[in-house]
Amino acid sequence: MINCFATSVRTEVGSLNAIPDGAGRIFQPSIGQKSLNLLVLRSADVCYGYINRCPHFGMPLATCDAQLLFEPNRWIKCNVHYTKFRWQDGFCVAGECVGESLIRVPLEVENGKVFIKYCSNIGEQ
Ligand code: FES
After folding, report:
1. Spacing, Cα 83 to ligand 1 middle (Å)
2. Can you list the domains of the chain with their CATH numbers?
3. Residue 69: its pLDDT value, please?
4. CA angle, 91 as apex, 98 and 94 as ends, to 5°?
5. Residue 54: CB within 6 Å of ligand 1?
């Protein structure tokens, strides 16, 4: 008999306190051999994660924290053509790629740390 399974894995991104409430930060966590360009937006004890890549031209929304353009807990803008994305789900609501979305990265916060949660290989047991 074949049973399929997937293993849930977490990778630490950083400290929750490193992200001011209502603001965003860019991180480069490693998953295996790959480094992720990860945008993390914080609302109190909840964090929203997105690949830092605009669906318009595939450019980063910003290349450093100081360049992030946002209104706390409401939206973040790409600083190339100023397209606006919703804070909580990355959906584009105004600008060059209305209707598209940032790629979400599932995050969880535990004991003051932010983690990426994902499934490793699905295999057979
Ligand atoms: S590259 Fe982001 S809006 Fe054009």
Report:
1. 6
2. 12-119 (2.102.10.10)
3. 98
4. 35
5. yes
